[in-house]
Amino acid sequence: MSKEGEEVSNKQILFRDYVTGSPKESDMVHNDSTIRLKVPEGLKAVAVKNLYLSCDPYMRALMTKHEGDPSHIVPFTPGSPIQGFGVAKVLDSGHPNFKAGDLVWGITGWEEFSLISAPETLFKITYTDVPLSYYTGLLGMPGLTAYVGFNEVCSPKKGEYVFVSAASGAVGQLVGQFAKLMGCYVVGSAGSSQKVDLLKNKFGFDDAFNYKEEPDLNAALKRYFPEGIDIYFENVGGSMLDAVLLNMRAHGRIAVCGLISQYNLEQPQGIQNLFCLLTKRIRMEGFLVAEYYHLYPQFLQSTLQYIKEGKIVYVEDTVEGLTNAPSALLGLFTGRNVGKQLVVVAHE
Ligand SMILES: NC(=O)c1ccc[n+]([C@@H]2O[C@H](COP(=O)([O-])OP(=O)(O)OC[C@H]3O[C@@H](n4cnc5c(N)ncnc54)[C@H](OP(=O)(O)O)[C@@H]3O)[C@@H](O)[C@H]2O)c1
Hints:
alpha/beta; 15 strands
């Protein structure tokens, strides 16, 4: 490590400007900057070295300015480094909760080194007998999303029929495994035969299908769920949601985790089959993981136990180097990632 206070070079990925439609790599700009690795006197900040950065679909929403919608999260600032989840090592701290050498996960910048001014939002990593990169996925925000979305929002019961879309991704692969551990019957959909194979042979889903090869999603769901669906873990929206509504059972639950098929559309697709909510008395509920961080300790404890017992596995899709981060992020919207997409910025 360089000497305290020394100015070092700092490669960054800056957010260029607000986006409509599909984002492009040129919306994220490479920049050579410098940074002092010492927290200025009196600042309750931490200076960190970024190790892993997480690519997450919600980052697309931060590329658009949602005028007149106060419920929406604050977008990226044009000209500033992209902000996202990551794993980092503390180099210097002005905050009583952190010291040099601590490993943390939470919101950081897409750059080699960051000065994080509100480190209270960071989680200290105390368990390191797993790959550190897991704290971008399995043991980080997506893992908690799968855990609370399934256990808190879906109200699952043993033996129920569960359907998961984008099932091989960062969140989906875990939802399926949590549902199997609960004793449910689980089917997943994904966008390639490689992903379908993972679902069936690695993650233990009872069945899986490639939605891109199904001209009639309603017919496909009827084939996989002849008795209907009790729980739908919604990651994609659009025509899949419409087909699922037709196949839900009475008193079914739909946890709306994400609607990725809609994120790049300038005009969102309409949903035609909402009448099923009424006739089948379905509960459809959106949720944000940000409202469930108080459950992180219990999630971490139980998931670590499952990992130790070999009851949960996790697939990551890793790219090397900050320069490859923009294309990795965009790959989420074409299904290029196989498993949790992350970027290695530096090794510890
Ligand atoms: N509510 C929350 O707090 C919360 C937190 C985290 C994530 N999420 C949401 O959870 C969902 C999954 O996130 P993740 O991190 O696990 O991502 P991911 O599944 O690892 O990656 C995104 C996947 O979405 C699929 N996809 C992309 N475009 C699609 C389209 N037009 N139609 C259908 N599928 C499409 C692709 O898989 P295929 O090859 O299978 O198409 C792609 O690999 C997203 O909707 C995300 O916004 C919500």
